[in-house]
Amino acid sequence: MTKGRFFCSASAIAALFALGASGQAHAQAQANPTEIGEVVVTGSFIRGTPEDAALPVDVISQADLEKQGSPSTLELIKTLSVSSGVLGDTNQFDTRAQGSEGSGSINLRGLGAARTLVLLNGRRMPLNPFAAGVVDTNIIPQAAIGRVEILKDGAAATYGSDAIGGVVNFITRSKFDGLDVGGSYTLIDGSKGNWDTSAVWGKSFENGEILISGGWQHRSELKTTDRSWALRPFAENAEGGWSGGTSTTSLFPILQSPTTGRWSLAGGPSVDVGCAAIGNLAVPGGCRFQFTAFDNLIEKEDRYQVFASANFDLNENHRFHTELLWAKTDVPVWKTSPSYLTLQTPTATTSPIVGNIDLPAAVPGQGWFVPATNPGLVAYRTANPTALPGAATGVYMAGVLYRPLSGGGNNIFPGSDGSSVGLRSYEAYRVSGGFSGETGFMGIGYDVALTYGQEVARRTGYDTVASRLQLAMRGYGSLAGDAGGGCTAAETNNFTTGAGNAALGCLWFNPFSNAVAGAAITGAANPGFNPTVANNPDLIRWLFPQVATKQTTRLVVFDAVLNGKTGIELAGGDVAWAAGVQARRDTFDSQYSPFTNIGENPCIDTPVNGSTNCAVRNGPLVFLGTGEEQELERLVYAGFGELAVPITDSLQLQFAIRYEDYERVGSTTNYKATARFQATDWLALRGSIGTTFRGPTLTNLTNSSGTALSFIAGSFRAIDTFGNPDLDPETANTYSAGLVFDVGNLKATLDYWRFDFKDPIVVEPSGSIVNTMFPGGSTARCGTAEFAQLQQRFTFQGACSTANISRVRVQVVNGPKIKTSGIDLLANYDFGEVAGGDVRMGVSATYTLEYKINAFQVAGVQVEAAYDAAGFLNYQLSATSLPEWKGSAFLEYERENHNLRFTLNYIDSYTDQRTAPFTANNIVTGAPVTKGKTIKSTLIAELDYRVELPWDTTVTASIDNLFDRDPSFARLDLNYDPFTGNAMGRTFKVAVRKRF
Q1: H or E stretch at 490
Q2: Cβ-Cβ contacts under 8 Å for 212 (sequence gap 6 or more)
Q3: Contact 564, 443 (CB under 8 A)
Q4: 932-941 per-position pLDDT tens digit
């Protein structure tokens, strides 16, 4: 392997620029030439391809990151100007992020994280089991990383599927000798802070090297109650976590005819008078519950990573490499609402009123029955004698706006402040080994490797069993752990106190406010609390069992690449080539606990009668759906080739082509051509044209479904997303053109990029489906022939209307065409010596010119007109949040062993595209709703100081969000946009690193 010197130009200028947590750290490396070994730059398999080739590659070194306070992988990704809509912080209220708390992603160009290929040392990583097609960036061995290379161009012609929007290659350290130990602490207001510690040991031998690293990162819990902006009054933001579904819902008094036995209304509805007393909010026409008060902005996380690698020279021409990764992320206490809405309601098996009640058309026909003998109802009527007609022999509650527990919290989880809890856990293994060297035949080199990786993801939560809830309201409740399924009528008649006959395991569930001691969040006592009718925690545990999911992805990849020279020499040098094959085996399997396993509990009543015969197979839970246990696998084969053609010293061309065959999907051939022309000593031109693609994931191709939640008509409803066996791969034509400047102390690049997608793999937009079926809330399209198929996508509790929506069915499809383009700007200026030190400054910015999506049709109906997503929030749409401008600038001063950097990170303002909620007046104030239509721009300052002390010790002190700016207000559940904003506020970080 030869050594040489290179001077940064072309993509090396870009490469050493948009870096670090602020996107510029690498720029300072451009000021001086750097001696490096021969490398294979991300984007090409041709050995010796220089970093100043035509490809737009950004390079982030370990030293660059250290000068910016050693940001975590998530912090780095969120502030890159080229990345938008990043998953990583708690965002359980968006269907594009739910269930993936604790994992991370990178989303180049805002195209979607599944369109960015993430590599470790040039090899593929296993996928996140809970995020289809996405690599969990939190399993990257942070302490071992020596540099990160980001290819901002379609690269399927080189790397295959998933590289449709670009490649991020995390490359571990090499030639490292000694022991490097470090740690840091970040002070966060309202939190116990974040910690990390790491150790890296390396040893070089005459014929090889070994590297071992370990790291631990801890994030402390940050509650919504720790940030005043995260919980806003209903009058300020009705969308700020306020649900119309509460435990103090509307009560419809009913009575049973003594002659026919049928039930009917005994008067108009009323709202439980204890609405406000248990922490809810009484508003005109009903009650509201702020569920976000029970959530976290940042969950407690513990992350562990161990990495080891070894390289050995077998002889002069052959080398062996192996590496091993183990990583684990634990989110032990994920917090959420005390209980979910009852979007599934009981059948005639457990409720005497189902199919036996006469209700007006305006009143939902499905709901919960509370008999007059329920002790809670008896106590409620005694305390409030005029609340319900005396003749009423029971109470009916509409299911779609009822939840068993709300402002009073859930008391079965000690220390949770009334929240329901769950966990998230991710554990990954990866081993890779291979041989590289020269064959001895015409100087041909080879690189052969076999890689195995897997990630196991677990999550738990709690939901109400519908049939059990109805039985308990009628006095047939059981203790937790009682497999009997309920009490007999004779046992129920033995009821003597509000606590039930515990000896017989017989309990009543009291759905009224008099069962609740007070508001869980504020601690205010409920004056109407009646301890004799309080609910037994063991009954709650029986109603509200834990549900669990375990999903595993596995990946086996065989890579074989040959490279060499053709023997053809042009004016610019030798024509070089690379060719290879790849075989991949993907597997996915899923396991579910009994209540979410459709094979065990397909029906609402299966837990109480064992029946598996039902028309609607959504399982027994009121909100969460079921899943089908699966074992899926497929093979992918590929062959590819590259050619580097140096026409002259000033003009270099490069070509790539790849054929890939997807089992059960089909095959595709993609090409790419790039060029770089050095027009003058100070100006170079570069560009590329090609095609790229992405194949459907294994879960995309199945008929099974997953359940998410979406805010519809004042409360969350279930969104059931089904796979599609008929999916085709998505394809795109890609184009780029750029200028590279090197004028004195100024180095800069300006690149235009464009992606034209065909058949993009997307999920049908649930929000648009609802808005199309019910424009302005109207029911005029219900029952019409034109919208009949679209109406079938809904499950209603009663008549066709937004108020009665319980579930919406959507599917993964090949969606409408997408066209997106933009400009990247990178600039760096070196002032030279100023005041005894070196001063540098730089700018990194991405401007998205357009993100146009053609009209979207579902069930033969246009649900979305064509629109441009650039500059919009894109809530409940296929695109994520996409500000037009994102960038950063820095000013750095370095003198001897001191380095001081000031950084400004900028996110442009963008618009909430929704018509509602900006068309109606606030129901509390009566004032028009305008605030939040524009999500204001943010400018966050960061200050980092690094000093090299004696004894090979480095200390770094950082202040992030120097002026303590709150995230920009958005009319979303948490009052900000977690895809772009930062909830932590001003933080102080100290990091120490010691080298031995």
Answers
A1: helix 489-493
A2: 200, 201, 202, 307, 308
A3: yes
A4: 999 999 999 9
pLDDT digit string, tens, across residues 608-644? 888 898 888 889 999 988 888 999 999 999 999 999 9
Task: Give the integer Cα–Cα distance in Å for 604 and 613.
Answer: 10
**For the chain, give me the number of helices (H) and strands (E)?**
11, 50
Q: What is d(CA 93, CA 463) in angstroms, rounded to the nearest whole number?
A: 17
- Residue 314 scores a pLDDT above 50: yes
Count of CB atoms situated within 10 Å of the CB of 391: 11
Q: Does residue 664 carry a pLDDT above 60?
A: yes
Question: Is residue 492 scored above 90 in pLDDT?
Answer: no
Q: What average pLDDT does range 662-683 have in this prediction?
A: 92
Integer Cα distance of 419 and 462 in angstroms: 11
The type of residue at 505 is: G
Say what the pTM is: 0.89
CA distance 966 to 228: 10
Contacts of 984 (CB under 8 A, 6+ apart): 188, 191, 222, 298, 960, 961
Cβ 862 vs Cβ 775: under 8 Å? no
Contacts with 548 (C-beta within 8 Å, 6 or more apart), sequence order: 458, 459, 460, 592, 593, 596
User: For the residues of 318-344, what is the DSSP string, one character each?
Assistant: EEEEEEEEEEEEEEEEEEE-SS----S
Q: For the purposes of burial, counting CB atoms within 10 Å of the CB of 941, is it exposed (0-12), middle (13-18) or buried (19 or more)?
A: middle
Could you give the CA distance from residue 714 to residue 240 in angstroms, rounded to a whole number? 11
Name the residue with tokens 């597997």.
587
Mean pLDDT, the chain, whole residue set? 88
pLDDT tens figures, 803-832: 888 889 999 999 999 999 999 998 999 999
* 3-class secondary-structure state, position 15: helix
Report the C-alpha gap between 780 and 447 in whole angstroms. 65
- Distances from the Cα of 801 to the Cα of 34, 288, 666, 720, 785, angstroms: 67, 20, 42, 18, 16
Number of CB atoms found within 10 A of residue 581's CB: 14
First to last CA, the chain: 29
Give 742's strand partners.
747
